[in-house]
C-alpha cells in the first residue's frame, strides 16, 4: 500500500513539473466566465470550434464519430464541430455537436466518444501556449489529447508527439442561427439541471433545438 501511494505521489509530482515547465515558455490559462455555479451558469460559455492540428506534412481536425471513434479529418465536417465548455478555471468539457458524444480518455490514453459524461475521464485542462496553440491534458490519466498513434504520456523531459497541439478554429460548417431560441433553452436547463445526470452541463438541450437540416 505504501509503495502504491509513493508511485501515485511521484506521478503527480512529475505531472506538476511538466506543467511548470510549460509555464516557463509563455503558458496562459483560459479564463471562463466567473460564477459560483459551474453547472448552470457556465452553460452559457459554450464555444463552437474545430480543433485543428498539423505536422510538417499533414493537417487534421479532431472529430468524434457517432460510433464513439475519435479520429481526424482534413476538412471541417459536422463531426469535427465541437462544443467546448469551461467548467472551472482552466478546465473544459468537449462534446461533438453531431455525434452528441463527449470527448473522453481511457486509462491507457486512448480517446473515445461517450454519450455519458464522467468527470475523471471527460474533463481536460486547457493549456494555452505562447504560439496560440493549446494542449488538452487529462490530469486523471496524465496524458494529453493527441491524434497521433503514440500515446502522449506526461513525463519530465519527454517530447510531446505530433498532432497534440491544437488550434481552435472558427466554424465554417453551415449551422442555422439559434440565438432566438437560447432563452427558452436556458429555462429548460434551470428546470431540469441534475448533477447526477449523464449530461450534467445541459449540452443535450442545444442538440434538441437545432434544425434537422444541420444533420442532413
From TrEMBL:
Coiled-coil ranges from the UniProt annotation: none
SMART domains: FGF
First and last residue of the signal peptide: none
SUPFAM superfamilies membership: Cytokine
InterPro entries on file: Fibroblast_GF_fam, IL1/FGF
GO MF annotation list: growth factor activity
Organism domain of life: Eukaryota
Protein family: Belongs to the heparin-binding growth factors family.
Protein name, per record: Fibroblast growth factor
Source species: Latimeria chalumnae
Source taxonomy: Eukaryota, Metazoa, Chordata, Craniata, Vertebrata
